[in-house]
Amino acid sequence: MSFTIATWNINSVRLREPIVTRLMGEEAPDILCLQECKCLAEQIPTEAFQALGYRWQVARGQKSYNGVAILSKLPISDAGGEDFAGLGHARHVAARLDNGVTIHNFYVPAGGDIPDRDQNVKFGQKLDFLAHMRDGFSKDKPARAILVGDLNIAPREDDVWNHKALLKIVSHTPIEVEHLAAAQDAGAWVDVTRKDIPDGLLYSWWSYRAPDWDAADKGRRLDHIWATPDIANASHTSRILRAARGWDQPSDHAPVFATFDL
Questions:
Q1: What is the pLDDT of residues 173-214, one digit of tens each?
Q2: Residue 80 belongs to domain with CATH number
Q3: What is the pTM of this model?
Q4: 226 lies in which domain range?
Q5: Contact criterion met (CB below 8 Å) for 69 and 39
């Protein structure tokens, strides 16, 4: 069984329905995981997606904020969702394929602007969320699993446009990178994107603030695809669809893809 999975922070699935359907039509991933849907699960424009073959959906929604969804051409069943750090946010949902593979879709909190939990509650919530992920993976070791999502951290020096300039900027601070690494290590997760593309600058997010995001190219790799060691070697053909950042009314994130032969 071969399937392609994509992850994309869509920044409002209803507002950006046209580019979601464009991606479905042009790229046709078998499974599309969305974050920051910004609506209740029942408000996701399911009919349009079903018309393009995405007949199965598992989602957790929230009015105006957060929200995660897994849309699939392949049969999937709801495998639950957890309220990490007890925030009451719709930031995680899981689905299971018929072959037993579990897909986890995460939207880790962005963390605000100040990288200090004493001065910034949101930053503390981000660290707590990551610690909860770490503890959960330590207690219940994942197997035959894929983890995708907007993890809101660019861990490597070549995951940002300027390592030194961003060391004190939320998403690339050492404490965030350490917390993400601890969560990754606890589950023995393999960074599939960097397995397939081990070297070079690689971004999935470019700020709306840049007058010309493409020319400035001050990006960060905030969006990730991981897999457990028992299936990580089955992955290949990872890529980031940079062009989607330039579509009409774009998200500030670009979709990330990987294919698995299982």
A1: 999 999 999 999 999 999 999 999 999 999 999 999 998 999
A2: 3.60.10.10
A3: 0.98
A4: 2-261
A5: no
